[in-house]
Amino acid sequence: MSTLRHSEIAGVGHYVPSRVVTNADLTQLMETTEEWIQERTGIQERRWFEEGKDTTANMGAAASRKALEAAGLTPDDVQMIVFATLSPDYFFPGSGVLLQRELGIQAPIPAFDVRNQCSGFVYALSMADQFVRTGMYDTVLVVGSEIHSSGLDKTTRGRGVSVIFGDGAGAAVLRPSTREGHGILSTHLHAQGEFAEELIVKEPGSNREGRVDYAVANALDMYPYMNGQNVFKHAVVRFPQVIKEALDQNGYQPQDIDLLIPHQANLRITQFVQQKMGLSDDKVFSNIQRYGNTTAASVPIALSEALQEGRIQRGDLVCLAAFGSGFTWASALIKW
Ligand SMILES: CC(C)(COP(=O)(O)OP(=O)(O)OC[C@H]1O[C@@H](n2cnc3c(N)ncnc32)[C@H](O)[C@@H]1OP(=O)(O)O)[C@@H](O)C(=O)NCCC(=O)NCCS
Predict the structure, then answer these.
(1) Which of 176, 194, 210 is the last residue of a domain?
(2) Catalytic one among 14, 263, 266, 319?
(3) pLDDT digits 0-9 by tens, 294-315
């Protein structure tokens, strides 16, 4: 492992739709209150896409252009695309190839999708990292982009789920690190499929005969289902575990972390993790208040905003961590 080169994040960018939906707006659609949403999740507002303007692929492209610009690169420099989303533009093909087209990349570079929901970006980052480490590619674009709002049950029936999720996109460019001991130090990926149905969009599943007709007849199963309490219970255990795993592998302690960027699942989960790891407020990044949970887009949006706000300096130890549907969970430790 040590003989392989490291990759580093050379540029990050994000894009969110311009339409802001506040908790007060949601009270017009369903029986809920601003207080309930704020107290249970920390969320104050989220973004919802604009039909005809925003797509999963073009939001990813907007974020990618910013990430490439920050890295001093152009789309033609990209050698591979890894696209994380649970809300692809089409059932198939994946949004990775659409992103290639959106960016006007003519070269037949590889592009693929990662379907790991809230852990999608960290999984995608890990995959990209492997390709850079082995020397197969020098410039890999990693994208997380989601449109949840078109698929949520915005009635009282769906309120336990639909108040949480929002739309947006983030992207990062990986390049080989030129600085010894810097870059992505390690990544850690996990899954536990026995909980697959605890956070799920079931239809249109392929294992029903005549699946299109079946899905239409069972349309309610096209909305996300979440066993919120069980997700919470597992999240507060897995986040600290996978962060600790990354620290242990690299000989660090929790207090060595300069900034923890957790997947923005729920502010209460983040606060729980912060407390369990013994981290002060300035060492944990949260922007769920403004965007809700954007699943695969949440970590790169947060990373992009943290950089914009000057929360990350050269040499800082940055930890990314995620947990979500699958269940899946993951972390990445980065010496910036
Ligand atoms: C979703 C979550 C906020 C719900 O909080 P909770 O305390 O578990 O609430 P429950 O689901 O037990 O519901 C409690 C009550 O609130 C009601 N409720 C649910 N959503 C509501 C809403 N948006 N507004 C008002 N009331 C709501 C429920 O109907 C229930 O009412 P009842 O007691 O009359 O049956 C919480 O479980 C959670 O944060 N889970 C983790 C979710 C998460 O992070 N998901 C992303 C994973 S990556």
Answers:
(1) 176
(2) 263
(3) 999 999 999 999 999 999 999 9
